[in-house]
Amino acid sequence: MLGLGIIGWIIIGGLAGWIGSKMMGTSEQQGILLNIVVGVVGGLLGGFLLNLVGVDVKGGGLIFSFFTCLLGSVILLFVVKKVRT
């Protein structure tokens, strides 16, 4: 993922954040900027959690990075929804 740089993080994070928000039913409440933030933070969260269970996330490639961001985004949105209610 480091080979893509900041633009790659924004694109993958935005896409993962948008799909995650669609899956969690929060799409109407978020704009594109919040989707990007959720996706990038979700990527950090997903990478952290996968490292905890012993998955090597450094050499996973583009598709693995996307699914890591998506997993983290869904977890992040789930926690936020639980805290808000």
UniProtKB/TrEMBL annotation:
Task: Give the membrane topology.
Answer: Multi-pass membrane protein
The compartments listed are:
Cell membrane
> TM spans, by residue?
6-25, 32-53, 59-80
* Keywords associated with the record: Cell membrane, Membrane, Transmembrane, Transmembrane helix
Superkingdom classification of source = Bacteria
The record ties this protein, via InterPro entries, to: Transgly_assoc
Q: Which family does it belong to?
A: Belongs to the UPF0410 family.
User: PANTHER family, per this entry?
Assistant: UPF0410 PROTEIN YMGE
Q: What is this protein called?
A: GlsB/YeaQ/YmgE family stress response membrane protein
Q: Which organism is it from?
A: Rhodococcus oryzae
